[in-house]
Amino acid sequence: MKESGRKQGAASPCAACKLLRRRCAQDCVFAPYFPADEPQKFANVHKVFGASNVNKMLQELPVHQRGDAVSSIVYEANARVRDPVYGCVGAISSLQQQIDALQTQLALTQAEVVHLRQFIK
Amino acid sequence: MKESGRKQGAASPCAACKLLRRRCAQDCVFAPYFPADEPQKFANVHKVFGASNVNKMLQELPVHQRGDAVSSIVYEANARVRDPVYGCVGAISSLQQQIDALQTQLALTQAEVVHLRQFIK
Which family does this protein fall into (chains A, B) (predicted)? Predict the structure, then answer.
């Protein structure tokens, strides 16, 4: 999941530093995950969480967990931009409803199995 | 879901204004949802999203949708504090796995119903 946001030695800043109009340092915490050619990926994250908060969140994690953290942060940010009221909590509600429906259907089907077995014995 | 963060005419600020050390205005956007006696509710929201972003998000919504938006924002913030890598996306993955397992179990049980019916006809 790790992406190269900035070529080694190249002067072009990552998408985060470009949006924030700042120099993209060699050790930029965003550069590996926000490549210059995907500006919208960082724009939504910045709009929803703010660059400063995401910077802090990433700094508090070991490097090997940052890729997964960025993926989940990007997912949440995109969901919030699509649905400003429920964000990805809307997806959670919808999945829970699907689980309820499946559990009901499974219980009915299991009851039918029990019922049918009575005729076979 | 609407809560009174600040008594009418009372001087005590809501949990958001208290944390931000600012005067809680009569039309404070946070006051109805972040009562003074629940400081942690706003603290996590501020840590994850930032007060300024949440202010903007709420201002962009009609008043009748703000309560639901605050609930989902609080849910996401708490999930991110509990699980800094996956946040509430961890819950989504887990629910999707449950759905996969239920669908498999349902398909097997439905196949068993078809099988048993052959013996009855």
Answer: Belongs to the LOB domain-containing protein family.
